[in-house]
Design goal:
703 residues; alpha/beta; eight-stranded mixed beta sheet; six-stranded mixed beta sheet
Length: 703
């Protein structure tokens, strides 16, 4: 017989204190069942004649971290979180919120509606709704300025940053911080308070109206300058904080609710919420049904260049013991200098204390001896992108690694299955494709070939998550050429740009069009930054599709010795030490000569033409990856493009963008371009199927 589901809220009593306990794992999200449970328990507690005070607490590791975001797109169910917060604030007996873990978003709004707040020392609080393109919609914009003033309130809401319990107490957000048992302290505190203290009645920070309005005006000007006049959520947050001073609480709440609805309905919020769920979906690997990540304590990295050193830093920052192997004493010293310089910069910028930097380095072992690899639980090969070199190194690693160790190669485009065979231990070998700079970029592609074991895949995935990164699974077939998800789409992106460059556009025009779309950098700026010689070596080492159009412009630039920022000259010219360049007139001459040699008459491209052609190429490449099974779901492609290549997060990624246009229209536009370059713009079978069946890529996310 099936047991009835456990109720997520229960009411307990400790003498004259009623204890409302939330238990809705894993993060105590404030879904409708929880809200109804809290409301019922509160009403029952207040109605009880032996109740003198109420404590709202949560079991598990955290106070509620917010509302259930999935409900944003559903028909509202009462009580809404705003209604619940009003019920708490109007309670006729003192209500104390007891906070552990994190109180975020709706969780903090609930706590602010309580009359008093107590937190453990390790607790953190924040209102991160701005990251979802919206604002606190349950009274947060009205209660927070009353508690801590407009300046600090705007800081918290416009950045979405969290604050620790100690800082929150200094601000006036928390009444008591404790090192002792939270539940015991909260009950004792509840017994010590005699009266209710509605936040709406707190006028401490509303008295100086002139100063308050000056803070609001300054922040509105800042938002306009930094984000533009059309940045909906930031401007609405400022408007709501202004309303907290100018309007009665009830009216201010109405203004907030209206602003919240406007934000939720916006394309930006839709894109950001899609990104939120896409990142969580990406971490769901099918191998989880067969295996769990093995414990990893010591990590070894072979290769101490920019990538290897970056991976080492990421591992050190996450508490791993790290062995970094480089060739010769000079290689070891160079790696030590790179890693040491990173920690020096971090300390100088206040990101780390000197003690923290020194402590991290105590967990680093630098050596030129491969026989130290036998101690590692996971080994990452990060040497030069050359198949023969990597195959030889992986064979040595396979012979030295302990039997249960996982071996990972950081290759971005070489044949993963062949490299795994070269290790002698294909079941233990996977891909871990980090994105530069590895200590910063949040994306890691986990390459899975047909012979990889579920255990090795899940251990690699668990390691990436332990680094605080978002792992995305890429099923890489034997002989697969372009490599993983990211580089396959990047090749299509660059190919579309290069064709337009050859046919009449300039590097600056293409870069400008993509920046205006929302990318921080255009493709040729990125190429200069990465080093033109790296992409050149990749092109020279790969067989070419004889049916695909090949544009030699980039090759000719490298053959002139112009390698990008590293040589102060590439598509742009860079002053010594500068990362911002100016167009390279010699490159423009080289392009003109190249067109003349090929008999190409330059034609004009509008910025819209440029964006459309590139975005169509990206979506089509993504659809091909879905058809080949390289990407498990369209949202995984969105994650890779947002985290790895700077696709505007507010748009939700290219596959979501394609759904906004509809696959049928995308297929129609591709049919117009396909005759120019069928290999690039000929519609992928998956895209054709979606167009014919009037479906969207989102339908494949659910499958």
């Amino acid at each position: 017989m099936k047991q009835a589901p456990k109720h997520p809220v229960r009411l307990e009593r400790q003498g004259n204190v009623a204890l409302i306990v939330i238990e809705n794992p894993p993060v105590n999200a404030l879904g409708v069942a929880v809200r109804r449970g809290i409301a019922a328990a509160l009403n029952a507690a207040v109605a009880h004649d032996k109740t003198d005070a109420v404590v709202i607490a949560a079991n598990g590791r955290t106070f509620p971290v917010g509302a259930d975001i999935r409900e944003f797109d559903m028909v509202p169910q009462e009580p809404s979180l705003g209604q619940l917060c009003n019920l708490i604030e109007r309670a006729q007996k003192p209500v104390v919120a007891a906070i552990q873990g994190t109180a975020l978003g709706g969780g903090l709004e609930l706590a602010m509606a309580a009359h008093y707040r107590i937190a453990v020392k390790s607790a953190r609080m924040g209102l991160p709704e701005i990251h979802l393109g919206t604002l606190p919609g349950a009274g947060g914009t009205q209660r927070l300025p009353r508690l801590i003033g407009p300046e600090l309130a705007l800081d918290m809401m416009l950045t979405g940053n969290q604050v620790g319990a100690g800082i929150a107490a200094e601000m006036g957000l928390i009444d008591l911080v404790t090192d002792n048992d939270l539940r015991t302290e909260a009950v004792a505190y509840a017994r010590s308070v005699a009266v209710t203290r509605p936040t709406s009645a707190n006028r401490t920070h509303l008295v100086d109206g002139v100063g308050y309005m000056a803070s609001v005006a300054a922040r509105r000007e800042q938002v306009t300058m930094e984000l533009g006049a059309n940045a909906l959520a930031p401007h609405r947050i400022v408007d709501c904080v202004e309303a907290a001073l100018l309007l009665p609480m009830e009216t201010g709440l109405e203004v907030e609710r209206s602003a919240f609805k406007d934000c939720i309905a916006s394309r930006e919020s839709e894109g950001l919420r899609h990104a939120f769920f896409a990142e969580r979906a990406a971490a769901k690997f099918p191998e989880a049904a067969e295996a769990k990540p093995a414990q990893v304590d010591r990590v070894a990295i072979v290769g101490g260049g920019m990538m290897g050193s970056g991976i080492a830093i990421a591992a050190l920052q996450s508490g791993f013991a790290v062995t970094l192997v480089e060739q010769g004493e000079s290689g070891v010293n160079a790696a030590l200098e790179r890693i040491g310089a990173y920690y020096e910069r971090s300390v100088a910028k206040g990101r780390l204390s000197e003690a923290q930097g020194a402590a991290a380095l105590t967990h680093l072992q630098l050596t030129n001896k491969l026989d130290t690899l036998g101690e590692a639980d996971l080994i990452v090969e990060a040497i030069a992108e050359d198949f023969d070199l990597k195959a030889q190194m992986l064979a040595e690693i396979g012979a030295l690694a302990k039997p249960d160790a996982v071996i990972a190669t950081n290759t971005s485009y070489l044949d993963l299955a062949a490299l795994a065979e070269a290790s002698g231990r294909p079941a233990d070998t996977v891909g871990l494709h980090f994105f530069a700079p590895a200590q910063v970029n949040k994306l890691v592609e986990v390459g899975v070939h047909d012979g990889a074991s579920a255990q090795s895949v899940m251990t690699a995935q668990g390691f990436a998550r332990a680094l605080g990164k978002t792992p995305v699974r890429a099923r890489v077939h034997a002989g697969f050429g372009a490599g993983y998800i990211g580089n396959s789409i990047l090749e299509a992106y660059r190919h579309a740009a290069d064709i337009m460059l050859e046919d009449g556009a300039t590097p600056a025009q293409i870069d400008g069009a993509m920046r205006s779309f929302g990318f921080q950098l255009g493709p040729y700026q990125v190429a200069d930054m990465s080093g033109l010689d790296i992409a050149y070596a990749r092109r020279q080492s790969k067989p070419r599709d004889p049916d695909a159009r090949y544009v030699e412009i980039a090759d000719k630039i490298v053959e002139q010795g112009w390698l990008g920022q590293k040589s102060n000259r590439g598509y742009y010219i860079y002053a010594e030490g500068q990362r911002q360049g100016v167009p390279n007139g010699d490159v423009l001459k080289l392009i003109a000569e190249h067109r003349a040699q090929k008999g190409i008459t330059p034609r004009k491209f509008s910025d819209r033409d440029i964006r459309d052609r590139i975005l169509l190429a990206i979506v089509n490449a993504g659809a091909r990856l879905l058809g080949e099974g390289v990407a498990a779901r369209p949202s995984d492609i969105d994650v890779v493009m947002m985290l790895g290549f700077g696709y505007p997060r507010s748009r939700g990624g290219p596959m979501m963008d394609a759904d906004a246009t509809t696959p049928s229209i995308i297929a129609s536009r591709l049919s117009v371009l396909a005759p120019e370059e069928p290999a690039l713009w000929g519609a992928a079978p998956v895209l054709t199927m979606l167009a014919q069946e009037r479906q969207k890529f989102a339908d494949l996310n659910a499958s």
